[in-house]
Amino acid sequence: MAVETITRHDAAQRSKRKFMIEAASIIGVALIFGLLLPLILPAFRLRLLGRFLSLAIVALGIDLIWGYTGLLSLGHGIFFALGGYGLAMYLNLQLPQGQLPEFFSLYGVNELPLLWKPFYSLPVTILAIMIVPAIVAALLGYLIFRNRIRGVYFSILTQAALLVFFNFFNGQQKIINGTNGLKTDTQTIFGALASSPPVQRGFYITTVISLVLVYLLCRWLTSGRLGRLLVAIRDDEVRVRFTGYNPTWFKVLVFAISGAIAGIAGALYTVQTGIITPNAMDVAFSIEMVIWVAVGGRATLVGAILGTLLVRLAQTTLSEQLPEIWLFFQGALFLSVVTILPNGILGGIKDLQTFLKGRRKLSTYPSLEEDPDVQKEREELES
């Protein structure tokens, strides 16, 4: 018993050291992105990279629920758009006392709707960007998970919810300008134009910091007992119920966290794009978010970031150089990943390492191969 306790303590210490090393590495890379690139890249390219990094944030949220929990959401555009609209509403209210955003006059609105009034405050706006998408995700998740709906039926329901929100936002001309959306590049923040290079550099640095914090949050959530429970739900939910846990509340929790992460990503993407419209809730865009994670590698977190950057950079480069045929290259990339690298780029690298080491691959928790207890037990069995 004492030996087992010491072994578990050593494993925990090694896991903690590994987490610290990984966190230091991520922070080091973030410093390069946040301090060096703004000095090298022109304003347009820096703004473009900022959008890609903000999309990597939402990819982390999807990897958290899909890669680790087995919940394939095709409706994350809802939470992404809610975050974008929240920050856009704040920017549109940066006007002299008594004035309303311009579009209200087009529809004969003379008084600011009650929904807008909390967004006069920046702290309230920042909280709303995270809390509102989290609440919507929690309510939607509870309605689905309490009926034990999962798998493809869950994916279909999230996509159906996406269509409902898309049509609803399209029809709200008097509140959020309907299909025209809300502009942010012509607004001011702290007295400066939001689209000016200095402000955009500030948004870019904020995006880099947010990406690091969200990554560390996801890594922390998936490296402890909660992470093991989420993977257990993914692999065998029925057995988890038999052990005395109620998977419903854990799935609601992780879905709400993922929704909040998408809200943060939507807000940062909006201010670096210059506009938010209901097209952020387009079905194809939500499916593309899933593709980024699939390309990089599920249940790796780093793969979600890598996949997003690779796909978006490839889209940008090919559309600039070969605008007529770049979609064919994009399709070929996705087909190659599905047929040749079904576990994504990082998954393929891990499979190759396993093959070269002559070990049998374990199709379960991603960190199991690196677990010190598992490695020690394997060595004892081999000896």
Automatic annotation (TrEMBL):
It is a multi-pass membrane protein. This is Urea ABC transporter permease subunit UrtC. InterPro entries: ABC_transp_permease, ABC_transptr_urea_perm_UrtC, LivM-like. The chain crosses the membrane at residues 21-42, 48-66, 73-93, 120-145, 152-169, 203-222, 249-269, 289-313, 325-346. NCBIfam families: urea_trans_UrtC (TIGR03408). One of its GO terms (cellular component) is plasma membrane. Its main location: membrane. It is found in: Cell membrane. One of its GO terms (molecular function) is branched-chain amino acid transmembrane transporter activity. It comes from the Bacteria. Pfam families: BPD_transp_2. Keywords: Cell membrane, Membrane, Transmembrane, Transmembrane helix.
